[in-house]
From TrEMBL:
This is Aspartyl-tRNA amidotransferase. It holds the Pfam family YqeY. It comes from Anaerobacillus arseniciselenatis. Coiled coil: none annotated. SUPFAM superfamilies: GatB/YqeY motif. It comes from the Bacteria. InterPro entries: Asn/Gln_tRNA_amidoTrase-B-like, GatB_Yqey_C_2, YqeY/Aim41, YqeY/Aim41_N. GO terms for molecular function: carbon-nitrogen ligase activity, with glutamine as amido-N-donor. The lineage of its organism: Bacteria, Bacillati, Bacillota, Bacilli, Bacillales.
């Protein structure tokens, strides 16, 4: 079952159970996926759908950070709930140890040795871990191993 089908099933379930917050988030994600499909002029692949889902999750996390910084707990609470709902649709996240292992392998594969090679390493790693970890973790580990 692809992501759009899963969202449709979950949307119906959320309607039946009168879960307003979950229903709202699912509708938002479906809308974002459909907009992206229209923009690309074709049905989305699983990888493209994951990219859209990642973008939506990142927006929520950025908003959460700003709300917490501004001491707006009322808004932060809603965004936290949205993040939890969105995380349910993400693939299983890699542990930091596994990401470190991938970073070390990739550094050896591309022959990187200095901080000047960070871009080359990041470009090779990100497709491998797409949707499975946060890019900031990858970036931090790459910088750590290349320094």
């Amino acid at each position: 079952m692809n992501l759009l089908d899963r969202l449709t099933v979950d949307m119906k379930e959320a309607m039946k159970n009168k879960e307003k917050q979950r229903l709202s988030v699912i509708r938002m994600v479906k809308s974002a996926l459909q907009n992206e499909a229209i923009k690309l002029g074709k049905e989305l692949t699983d990888d493209e759908a994951l990219t859209v889902l990642n973008r939506e999750l990142k927006q929520r996390k950025d908003s959460l950070h700003e709300f917490e910084k501004a001491n707006r707990e009322d808004l932060a609470k809603n965004v936290r709930e949205e993040v939890v709902i969105l995380n349910a649709y993400m693939p299983e996240q890699l542990s930091e140890e596994k990401v470190a292992e991938i970073v070390q392998q990739t550094i050896q594969e591309v022959g990187a040795s200095t901080k000047a090679d960070i871009g080359k390493v990041m470009g090779a790693i990100m497709p491998k871990v797409k949707g499975k970890t946060d890019g900031t973790i990858v970036n931090r580990l790459v910088q750590q191993y290349l320094s």
